[in-house]
Design goal:
Shape: flat
Strand content: 15-25%
Largest sheet: 6 strands, parallel
Radius of gyration: 42 Å
Helix content: 40-55%
Length: 840
C-alpha cells in the first residue's frame, strides 16, 4: 500500500493561526471533491476556529478515563476504519492519555500515513525536539511535549504559518487566543515581544535549513555542480598560521551582514600530513569558529587552491576568505603567483576576499627620508645582477658574435648597466659600468685578452660609456627619492587626517592618538602621563633604559613620553601636530566632565526647587491643621464639648500622622539618592507581602482581585521595603480604577525571576511620560494635594532596584496601566531585563 503524504503547518507560537489555516485548507479540498475528515481539532474556545470546522465530517473522539477524569482523545481505530482520503490532525506533539494505543499523537499520525491516508497537521516550533534547549533559554519554560526532528523533516510539505509578533500580541490582548483571565499573564511571560520575535526567527531559520537540505539533495540527484547562492555562506581558509584568527573574525563579520548567513572554516591538509601547519593554532582557531556560531572542516588535498574551491562549491558557498600570502616578492617571483591568484582564477561565481594581516606586512609607519633612496635588498640585488648577468652576457656575445659586431657588444653591455641601475641604483650601476667596460676591453677590443687600449678613440668611448651609466643611475636614484618623498607626503597626509579626525571621536580620541603616534613613528612605546604621574593612555612597551623624548601637552597638564629612538626634524614637525591634537582632546574631555557635573547640579537644583515648592504647601498644610487644632483646644479650655474636643484631637492626630509620613518619605528618598539605603535580603513569600499591603490599605475583595500563583517560590527581597513598594503601587492602582471596577494583583514566574503585576483599567500613562512618573515631586498633573509630595513611585523604584529588581510600567490590555515588580527568586538565576546582580 502506498504511504500517505504528510503536510505540516509550522508556527512560531500558539495563536498564529495554524489550526484555522488547516481547517480552511480542509474546506477548500472538500469543495474540490476530496474526501476530508477531522480526526481531531482543538479549538481552545476560539469562535472563528470553531466556525471553520463547520461543514466538515468529524470523527467522534474516544473517551479515556484517567484518575477519575474522562479525557477525550483521537480515535485512531475509527480513523483507520473510516479510511478517508485526507485526515486533519491538530497538535502533532500532543501526549495521549494513559491507556491509548500510542503514547504520542505523532505515532498515531505515522499509523494513519502507513494506512495510505494523507494527513495535514500542525505543530509549534517549540515542540521540535532539537530546539528544546534553545526555546527554554528564550522563554524560560521547558517543553515536555516534543516531536522528533526526523518526523517533521520527513514531511512531504512543510509550511510556516507566520504572524508578526506585535500582531499576535494584539490578537491575544483582544481575547482571540486565551480567555480574559489568562491574557495578562500570557502577555507578560511567554508572549513577550522579544520572545515572540526570537521564536519567529527560530521557526524561519529551521525551515530555511530544511529547504536548504532539500535543495542540496536535488542538486545531487540532478548532477548540478554550479553553486546556487540562495543563502550567504562564507568559507574561511585556514593555513594553521597565526593570521587565522584575523581571517575568522573577518569572515564572521561578512556572514553577519545578512540574516541567516553561515560561517564555515576549512583547513586543507596534505595527504602525507607534512604541510607546515601549527596544530595548536588550528585548535584555538577551531574553538574561535565554533564560539562565533560557525563550523570547522578539514579536507585532504595536494592542490590547496583546487581543494578550497571544490569545498566551497560543495557547500554552496557564496564567498571565500583567504589571507594575503606570507611570501616575499623574491619568493613570489621564483615560485609563481601563489594560491590566492589560483583561487581567484578557479572560483568562478564565488566572491573571493583576500585579507591583509600582520604576517603579510607591518602596521602603518611613515617612510624614512634619510638614508639611501633604494632599500638594501634592491642594492644587493643590483650587485648580484651585475655579477651574474655580466659573465652570462659575455658568454652569449662570444658564442654568437663576429669581428664586425663590436657595436652590438657595446650596446648589449650598455643595456646590462641600465638594467642594473634600474634595480640597484647608482653604486651597483657604477660597479656594472666599470666591470662591463673592463670586460669589453679584455674580450672584444684589440689587443684581445689585455686591458691595454691602443686606439685613443676606444679609450674615450669607454669613458663615455661609464659616464652614461652613471647618469642613468643618477636619474633612477632621483626618481626613487622622489617616489619615496611622495609616499612620505601621502603618509603624512593620512596621519594628519587621522589625527584631526580622532579628536572628534570623544572618549576614544586620546588612546587613538597615542596608538597612532607609536605606529607612525615606529617607536617601542608611547605614554601620555598626567601632571600627577597617572598614566592617561599608553601603547606599546615603554623602555626603562633607553632613548626617551618628553614633550609637554596642554600647558603642562600632561607630558607625552616617546620611547625607542630620536626623531628627525620632519618627524618633530608632525609630532607637534599630534601634541596639539592631544591637548585639544584633553580639553574636550575636561569640557565633557564639566558638562556632566553641570547636568548633575542642574538636576539637583531642579529637585531642590521642587522640594521647596512642595514643602511650602504639602508640609505646611498638615502642620497648620495640627497647630490650629491644638490652639483651639488650648484657647477653649473647658468650654468645649466632648464631641468638639474629640474632633479637634482627631484632626491633630491625623495631621501629625500625615506630617510623619511626609517626613519619612523625604528621608527615604534622600537615602535612595545618596545610595545609603539599608537593605536586608531574605526569602519572602510574595503572597504574604500582597496580603499585608491589602491590610495596610484596608482593601477587600470588592477593591482588588487576586490571581496568585500557589507554586511561586519565595523571592529574595527585603520584606519591609517590598511591602512599601506594594502599598505605593497598589494604592495608585485602586485610586485610578474606574468606579465599579477592581484593581488586580497577579504573580507569575519567568525563569529565575518572579513578577508581581499590579493592574488597573484607568486612564493609563502615555509612553513618553512614563519616565516622569518616577521623578521625585511629580504627580503628572494631579491636583489632589491630599496624596503627598509625589514621592511614592520614586521611592518604589529606588527600593526595587536596591533589592536587585526592577519596577516597570506596561500598558494594560483594553486600557490602563500595569506596574510590574520583578525580583529574583530565592536561589534562582536572574534572567529578566534589568536584574543583573545579586544584592549582598
Amino acid at each position: 500500500m502506498k504511504r500517505g503524504r504528510l503536510r505540516v503547518l509550522l508556527g512560531a507560537a500558539p495563536g498564529v493561526g495554524k489550526t484555522y489555516e488547516m481547517l480552511e485548507e480542509g474546506r477548500r479540498l472538500a469543495a474540490e471533491g476530496h474526501e476530508v475528515v477531522i480526526a481531531i481539532v482543538e479549538t481552545h474556545g476560539r469562535a472563528a476556529t470553531a466556525a471553520q470546522a463547520e461543514g466538515l465530517e468529524v470523527i467522534p473522539r474516544r473517551e479515556v478515563a484517567h484518575r477519575g477524569v474522562a479525557l477525550a482523545e483521537m480515535d485512531l481505530d475509527a480513523v483507520l476504519a473510516r479510511h478517508p482520503r485526507i485526515a486533519l490532525v491538530d497538535e502533532l506533539a500532543h501526549t495521549n492519555a494513559p491507556g491509548s494505543t500510542n503514547e504520542k499523537r505523532w505515532q498515531d499520525v505515522e499509523a494513519i500515513l502507513d494506512a495510505g491516508i494523507d494527513v495535514i497537521t500542525t505543530v509549534n516550533v517549540q515542540h521540535i525536539a532539537s530546539l528544546g534547549d534553545v526555546v527554554e533559554k528564550i522563554t524560560g519554560v521547558a517543553q515536555r511535549e516534543t516531536v522528533p526532528d526526523a518526523i517533521v523533516r520527513a514531511a512531504d510539505q512543510i509550511e510556516v504559518v507566520d504572524l508578526a509578533p506585535q500582531s499576535l500580541r494584539d490578537r491575544l490582548a483582544a481575547g482571540f487566543v486565551y480567555p480574559a483571565e489568562r491574557i495578562d499573564a500570557a502577555l507578560s511571560n511567554y508572549f513577550r515581544l522579544g520572545n515572540l520575535t526570537a521564536l519567529r526567527e527560530l521557526a524561519l531559520l529551521w525551515l530555511a535549513d530544511e529547504v536548504d537540505s532539500a535543495l542540496q539533495r536535488y542538486r545531487v540527484e540532478q548532477g548540478i555542480e554550479g553553486s546556487w547562492q540562495a543563502r550567504e555562506r562564507v568559507v574561511v581558509a585556514l593555513t594553521g598560521g597565526a593570521e587565522g584568527e584575523t581571517l575568522v573574525r573577518r569572515g564572521a563579520r561578512i556572514a553577519a551582514r545578512s540574516a541567516g548567513g553561515e560561517l564555515l572554516a576549512v583547513h586543507v591538509s596534505s595527504q602525507d600530513g607534512l604541510r607546515g601547519e601549527e596544530p595548536g593554532a588550528l585548535a584555538s582557531q577551531r574553538a574561535l569558529v565554533e564560539s562565533l556560531g560557525g563550523t570547522y572542516h578539514q579536507v585532504v588535498g595536494e592542490d590547496v587552491a583546487a581543494s578550497l574551491v571544490d569545498f566551497a562549491r560543495s557547500v554552496n558557498a557564496s564567498q571565500l576568505v583567504i589571507g594575503v600570502s606570507r611570501r616575499g616578492r623574491l619568493g613570489a617571483a621564483l615560485t609563481g603567483p601563489g594560491i590566492g591568484a589560483t583561487v581567484i582564477r578557479l572560483s568562478g561565481d564565488i566572491d573571493v576576499h583576500i585579507v591583509n594581516h600582520s604576517r603579510a606586512g607591518g602596521r602603518f609607519a611613515l617612510p624614512r627620508l634619510s638614508g639611501p633612496a633604494l632599500s638594501a635588498k634592491r642594492r644587493i640585488l643590483g650587485f648580484v645582477t651585475a655579477l651574474v648577468g655580466g659573465p652570462l652576457l659575455s658568454w652569449l656575445l662570444i658564442a654568437t658574435g663576429t669581428e664586425d659586431s663590436i657595436t652590438t657588444d657595446v650596446l648589449a653591455y650598455q643595456l646590462l648597466v641600465v638594467v642594473v641601475s634600474l634595480i640597484g641604483g647608482i653604486w651597483p650601476a657604477v660597479f656594472a659600468a666599470v666591470l662591463s667596460g673592463l670586460t669589453l676591453d679584455f674580450l672584444f677590443i684589440d689587443p684581445l685578452y689585455t686591458v691595454t687600449i691602443d686606439d685613443p678613440d676606444h679609450a674615450l668611448s669607454l669613458v663615455l660609456y661609464v659616464i652614461i651609466a652613471i647618469l642613468v643611475s643618477v636619474v633612477v636614484d632621483q626618481a626613487a627619492r622622489r617616489a619615496r618623498a611622495a609616499r612620505r607626503a601621502a603618509a603624512e597626509s593620512e596621519l594628519l587626517a587621522t589625527v584631526a579626525g580622532s579628536v572628534l571621536r570623544g572618549e576614544s580620541a586620546v588612546p587613538a592618538l597615542v596608538s597612532r603616534a607609536r605606529e607612525a613613528f615606529g617607536l617601542a612605546g608611547v605614554r601620555l602621563v598626567a601632571a600627577d604621574g597617572s598614566v592617561l593612555a599608553t601603547d606599546g612597551e615603554p623602555l626603562r633604559d633607553g632613548r626617551r623624548v618628553e614633550l609637554p601637552v596642554g600647558d603642562g597638564r600632561a607630558r607625552l613620553e616617546l620611547h625607542g629612538r630620536d626623531l628627525d626634524a620632519t618627524e618633530r614637525r608632525l609630532l607637534d601636530v599630534v601634541v596639539a591634537q592631544l591637548a585639544a582632546a584633553l580639553e574636550r574631555t575636561d569640557l565633557a566632565e564639566t558638562a556632566a557635573e553641570a547636568g548633575v547640579l542642574a538636576e539637583t537644583d531642579q529637585v531642590r526647587s521642587a522640594l521647596l515648592s512642595a514643602v511650602s504647601h504639602d508640609l505646611r498644610r498638615p502642620l497648620a491643621a495640627a497647630v490650629a487644632a491644638l490652639g483651639g483646644l488650648r484657647a477653649a479650655g473647658d468650654h468645649l464639648s466632648a464631641d468638639d474636643r474629640r474632633e479637634l484631637l482627631e484632626t491633630a492626630d491625623e495631621s501629625l500622622a500625615t506630617l510623619s509620613v511626609l517626613v519619612t518619605d523625604l528621608l527615604d528618598v534622600s537615602r535612595v539618592q545618596a545610595g545609603v539605603l539599608a537593605i536586608s535580603l531574605a526569602p519572602v513569600d510574595p503572597a504574604d507581602v500582597v496580603l499585608a499591603a491589602l491590610d495596610e490599605l484596608d482593601l477587600g475583595p470588592d477593591d482588588v482581585e487576586l490571581s496568585l500563583d500557589p507554586d511561586l517560590p519565595p523571592l529574595r527581597a527585603d520584606p519591609v521595603l517590598l511591602q512599601r513598594v506594594m502599598v505605593n503601587v497598589l494604592s495608585n492602582a485602586v485610586r485610578f480604577t474606574p468606579p465599579g471596577g477592581r484593581a488586580r494583583v497577579a504573580t507569575s514566574r519567568l525563569g529565575g525571576v518572579a513578577e508581581i503585576r499590579v493592574i488597573d483599567h484607568g486612564p493609563g500613562v502615555a509612553p513618553e511620560r512614563r519616565d516622569d512618573m518616577f521623578a521625585p515631586f511629580q504627580r503628572l498633573g494631579d491636583t489632589d494635594n491630599t496624596v503627598g509630595l509625589g514621592l511614592g513611585l520614586a521611592l518604589s523604584r529606588g527600593f526595587a532596584e536596591g533589592m536587585g529588581g526592577t519596577l516597570t510600567p506596561e500598558d494594560t490590555p483594553g486600557g490602563g496601566l500595569t506596574m510590574v515588580i520583578a525580583l529574583p527568586v530565592e536561589n534562582g538565576d536572574a534572567v529578566a531585563s534589568g536584574i543583573t546582580r545579586e544584592t549582598p
